[in-house]
Design a protein that fits this description.
- There is one protein chain.
- By secondary structure, the chain is an alpha+beta fold.
- Helix content is 39%, strand content 24%.
- A three-stranded antiparallel sheet has the order 1-3-2, covered by helices on one side.
- It is globular.
Length: 72
């Protein structure tokens, strides 16, 4: 399962990147059209949910989920 965190703030991008690195989570950073993204790999749904809940509390953020793509 892969999860992507997007932000337009370079400051938050750097803070989240450091947070994930300290938690020893495997991720890939990217920049596309002024939007910074961190894609997290190799976590189960439960681990991802737990990590995102802890991270949103830590950084005082809100979650905004995109709808899942329909299967063909």
């Amino acid at each position: 399962m892969a999860t992507t965190i997007k932000t337009s703030s370079k400051n938050y991008f750097n803070k989240i990147q450091k947070y994930l690195h300290n938690k020893r989570v495997f991720f890939t950073p990217s920049l596309n059209l002024g939007v910074y993204a961190l894609t997290i790999f190799d976590l189960s749904e439960v681990e991802t949910t737990s990590l995102l809940n802890k991270m949103t509390k830590h950084f005082h953020l809100t979650k905004q989920q995109e709808p899942l793509a329909l299967a063909a």
